[in-house]
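Q: I'm writing up a methods section and want to include an example of the input and output format. Could you take the sequence below and give the corresponding predicted structure tokens, formatted cleanly so I can copy it straight into the document?
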Amino acid sequence: MKVAIITDQHFGARKNSKLFHDYFLEFYNNVFFPFLEKNGISTVIDMGDTFDSRKGIDFSSLAWAKNNYYDRLHEMGVQVHTIVGNHTAYYKNTNEVNAVDLLLREYNNVTVYSQPTEVKLDNLNILFIPWINQENEETTLKLIKKTTCQCAMGHLELQGFRVNRQLVMEHGLDSKLFEKFKRVFSGHYHTRSNNGTVFYLGNPYEIYWTDVGDTRGFTIFDTETLEHQYVDNPYRMFFNIYYEDTPHQMLKTDEYIGKIVKIIVRKKSNQKQFEKFIDKFYSSNVAELKVVENFQIQETKDIEEFESEDTLSILDRYIQESEVELDKSTLQNMIREVYQEACELV
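A: Here is the clean output for your methods example:
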């Protein structure tokens, strides 16, 4: 039996941005649903952070999610197993109040897991592990040690895996706790990475600048062979364009319509030619255009990554490079929490 695994969909992201919801819909209408229908996939496992804000959801975001995602899955007869993530749990110390349970009760094809649960899919027993917090940590760790399940799927915060291309998580649980399992799949971190046993599957699409050029999509898992394959999302939102006295006549801008573009200037000898290059982007109706000019830096891979960083990554890097005497991983975690709460404010 083959099942689809998807995680960190973040419906309502970027303050319920229509631009991003339209972008998400390209993926669902042209990639996700056609693949399920073509391959007869009747089970979807959602590994957390289905909605973006843990404190509330805009009504239009909820309507969008129901009309374009949940209604469609219901009509297709697809069973959905949804694991509570940190973005869908209202409180930080318990999963008891969560968005997916409260908002999706009308769907008889959706099952929500707010506590660690052993679930049998086909002939395979799987341990579902929702977000681990103060209330459920002891119970979860005991069940991890006790269970005979071959596979675990959850929303885990483990040390040593990439949060994005620039940042490796330095705190969280030790992945050695999961060595007994043949396969462990997790959401929470938005980029794909693995250590051979634990696989972070990444989210379906780009949401922030740190995602630029990073392959996204969903995963197909075979419950008989325990093998998995990625189904990539070909659609992008963010683009880095490098200007090196590039002739504007050679520029094709069709793929940037409705996208977010950053032009990084490496060489500019003629201001008028440069302005014509920029004007061509504006006339092509990009959603957002940013120009970065810095002729003092060396062109290295590190610089390219720095140019793509978002606010949170810059803060993390600043703390890591500072000489503060405090525990840096603790300080980074505090900053992330404050930043996330600030993003959720209206």
